[in-house]
Task: inverse folding
């Protein structure tokens, strides 16, 4: 039976690759993004009735709830939730981080997964099974892979992932996260903060060559699959070995 999958941030980068990979695997996917034009372009490229667009702001409680209801209303259930939408802070150090940057990063990267998980869990618990895959980051378990707000947000995603896994695992709902390193997406075109970049520059030669979005998507699809049925609460590094040393 085809699964029902929700992927946030589905119009570009890793999210786009996830959408394509789930559809190729025979799943029905609700691809979610704020960028209507880009999202519909992705849907047209895939060219399958098994993927549907949903445009909305999942960094709000109402938006996240409406997203989950859209998937359940169309296909009758929810099997997999991939909280992938995220934004960077351009390596901005704490003393230069303004309130708007902090709230934007925490809103998308932390509030979004929180609201989406909260809306999805009742459906998964009613079914007695479900799977959540969050997109964390190499910055989620280390201090020098991003700016202050981005690093804090991805640490929060790691904590949320582990808590959901611990509490809901016995109820049939697994929760894991992928932790990408450097990946070839439009995020790499950011203009970094001068001070943040200067602090990071000596370590850039240690970063492995950037991976492809499709390689990261494969890891997410594995965690969402029955092949990972005994994997719960894991943070899977998908970074070419960057955090192995």
Result:
């Amino acid at each position: 039976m085809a699964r029902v999958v929700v992927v946030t941030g589905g119009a570009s980068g890793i999210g786009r690759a996830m959408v394509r990979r789930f559809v190729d695997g025979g799943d029905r996917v609700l691809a979610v993004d704020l960028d209507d034009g880009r999202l519909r372009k992705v849907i047209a490229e895939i060219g399958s009735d098994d993927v549907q667009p949903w445009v909305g702001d999942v960094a709000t409680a109402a938006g996240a709830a409406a997203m989950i209801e859209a998937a359940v209303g169309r296909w009758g259930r929810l099997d997999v939730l991939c909280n992938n939408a995220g934004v960077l802070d351009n390596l901005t150090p704490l003393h230069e981080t303004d309130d708007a940057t902090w709230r934007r990063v925490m809103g998308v990267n932390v509030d979004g997964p929180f609201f989406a998980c909260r809306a999805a869990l009742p459906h998964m618990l009613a079914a007695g099974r479900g799977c959540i895959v969050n997109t964390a980051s190499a910055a989620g378990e280390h201090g020098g892979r991003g700016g202050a707000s981005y690093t804090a947000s991805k640490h929060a995603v790691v904590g949320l992932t582990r808590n959901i896994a611990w509490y809901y695992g016995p109820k049939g709902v697994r929760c894991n996260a992928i932790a990408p390193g450097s990946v070839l997406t439009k995020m790499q075109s950011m203009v970094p903060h001068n001070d943040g970049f200067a602090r990071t520059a000596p370590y850039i030669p240690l970063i492995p060559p950037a991976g492809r979005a499709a390689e990261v998507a494969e890891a997410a699809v594995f965690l969402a699959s029955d092949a990972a049925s005994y994997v719960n609460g894991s943070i899977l590094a998908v970074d070419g070995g960057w955090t192995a040393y």
Residues 197 and 204 are 10 Å apart (CA to CA).
